[in-house]
DNA sequence: TATTGTTATACTCTATAACTATA
DNA sequence: TATAGTTATAGAGTATAACAATA
């Protein structure tokens, strides 16, 4: 039909998602958006963005890590990591230490302030997830996490 | 410790995710990235982006929908939808029909070409998800979809 | 030659404000 | 006055190329 019928031009009551809500990618994006919006608010309190939060935690968990290794761990480009490390360094949360074995690279370490902030932020983020995922039981969340980990192949 | 130990400056073997891989938001982002990368490749074949794909499907499923309603359904801003509708209209996949009842609004309908493309793309996307989620059984995928739907509250 | 960190750049996605024409 | 569609714009996030210092 090249010309829509009269009925087709009437305003609809509500938007049907029928064909899309069976797609895992579609559902994952929407679920992620809900969680992420609350995470951003949680992190703002500590002056952190999602990427600086993940980077800080990873540096604390991997003292001496280089920027290339950190970028690989975070699945971002080395070039994009530079401003992330700059931001954390400016706020005295991590430090770029010269490596005697390779003078091209820096060994990243968290400062005492960075380690302290990481602990506080991590607790807050666990609280955020408890809130954002309150509709799921602990077991359901464990199932969800296990399934998500298998998708990435980790 | 203000000065990192010698051992802390050694290059690490591999990056530990210990503190992050228990967070659903972190796992969801990484799992989504894997699926989304393959989806983008699948849609490129049809000259579609993620957002134009979703919009096309939603217009076919909701003939006569207005742009404001479509934006709400897609969870994007009306202003950002304009170029999406432009793109689909330019490619003769959907049409902006004047609404007699409200001359400010457009009733969006899919063209025959748009309906045809939707069917072909949707089949391809189902194939893409079968590939990207091959590590999960049909039942596991159903469980995952159900959990994701509940997070969004839909 | 190859790699580390870096800069510059560009492209997508997203969010906000303001405009027009209608209601 | 409020709403539908539109424009302009600015901020994130992301990807690529090229460079200096070092391996």
Characterization of the model:
The first copy, chain A, has helices at 24-44, 50-61, 67-74, 78-90, 112-132, 138-152; strands at residues 94-98, 106-110. Chain A is mainly alpha-helical and 154 residues long. A two-stranded antiparallel sheet of chain A has the order 1-2. Residues 1-11 of chain A have low confidence and may be disordered. Chains A and B meet through helix 1, helix 2, helix 3, helix 5 and helix 6 of A and helix 1, helix 2, helix 3, helix 5 and helix 6 of B. Chain A binds a DNA duplex (23 and 23 nucleotides) through residues 49, 51, 66-68, 76-82, 85, 102-106.
Q: What's the alpha carbon Rg of chain A, rounded to whole Å?
A: 22 Å
Query: How would you state the average pLDDT of chain A, rounded?
Result: 92
Please name the fourth-level CATH homologous superfamily of chain A. Answer: Winged helix-like DNA-binding domain superfamily/Winged helix DNA-binding domain
Strand content bin of chain A: 5-15%
SSE pattern of chain A? HHHHEEHH
Computed structural class of chain A: mainly alpha
Domain HTH marR-type (chains A, B): 21-153
GO molecular function, one term (chains A, B): DNA-binding transcription factor activity
Organism (chains A, B): Fertoeibacter niger
Protein name (chains A, B): MarR family transcriptional regulator
């Amino acid at each position: 039909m090249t010309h829509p019928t009269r009925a087709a031009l009437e305003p609809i009551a509500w938007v049907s998602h029928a064909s899309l809500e069976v797609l895992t990618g579609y559902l994952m994006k929407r679920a992620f958006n809900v969680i992420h919006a609350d995470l951003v608010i949680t992190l703002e309190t500590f002056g952190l963005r999602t990427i600086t939060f993940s980077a800080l935690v990873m540096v604390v968990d991997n003292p001496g890590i280089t920027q290339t290794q950190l970028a690989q761990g975070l699945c971002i480009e080395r070039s994009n990591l530079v401003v992330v490390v700059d931001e954390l360094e400016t706020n005295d949360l991590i430090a770029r230490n010269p490596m005697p074995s390779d003078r091209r690279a820096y060994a990243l370490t968290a400062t005492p302030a960075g380690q302290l902030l990481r602990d506080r932020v991590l607790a807050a983020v666990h609280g955020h997830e408890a809130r954002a995922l309150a509709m799921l039981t602990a077991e359901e969340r464990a199932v969800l996490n296990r399934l998500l980990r298998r998708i990435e192949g980790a």
